[in-house]
Design goal:
The chain is mainly alpha-helical. The chain has a single domain (about 5-160), classed as NusB-like (N-utilizing Substance Protein B Homolog, Chain A). Helices cover about 70% and strands about 0% of the residues. The longest helix has 28 residues, at about 65-95. The chain is globular. It starts with a helix and ends with a helix.
Length: about 160
């Protein structure tokens, strides 16, 4: 997994946690890292227990280095300032579909790609779209990758970046 893909993956999970809990993405990253540290300590304790059938959970396993976290938080900041604009962009290209029916995960995935397309000009648009499709394969429904691909392609054309 590339370092930027890893950062996007972590950002998607942080966006979900942040919206679910009502706090910022930076706070979500902090909470996820804290849980990982606590789970790491618990894992070490479990290794020494005689209960061989017990497997500790690793809910986040971020493992982001400073550069990856900086990349993810940079995108998060752009999303937080532009999510209403991104929602409008998504709505404007939906055909025979109401925005309220777009799943939360799909919306977050598209926000990440749209933030990259608008603000991170060193990333080719096709890379942003492909990364969004890959996230959808991992985290969303069976039909989401093609849906997201179509919406982002239309959005990129409308934005004039493709």
């Amino acid at each position: 997994m590339s370092s930027r893909h890893k950062a996007r993956d972590a950002l998607l999970r942080a966006l979900y946690l942040a919206e679910s809990r009502g706090f910022s993405v930076a706070e979500a990253f902090d909470e996820m890292e804290l849980i990982d540290k606590e789970m790491e300590v618990e894992t070490k304790v479990v290794e020494f227990e005689e209960d061989a059938g017990r497997f500790p959970l690793e809910p986040f396993s971020l493992g982001l280095d400073t550069e990856e976290k900086t990349f993810a938080l940079g995108i998060a900041a752009r999303i937080e300032q532009s999510k209403d604009e991104f929602n409008t962009t998504i709505t404007s290209v939906l055909e025979n579909w109401d925005f309220s029916r777009v799943s939360r995960i799909d919306r977050f995935i598209m926000w990440i790609a749209l933030a990259e397309m608008k603000y991170l000009l060193d990333i080719p648009v096709r890379v942003s779209i492909n990364e969004a499709v890959e996230l959808a394969k991992d985290y969303s429904s069976e039909k989401s990758p093609s849906f997201i691909n179509g919406v982002l392609d239309a959005a990129a054309r409308k934005m004039g970046v493709l």
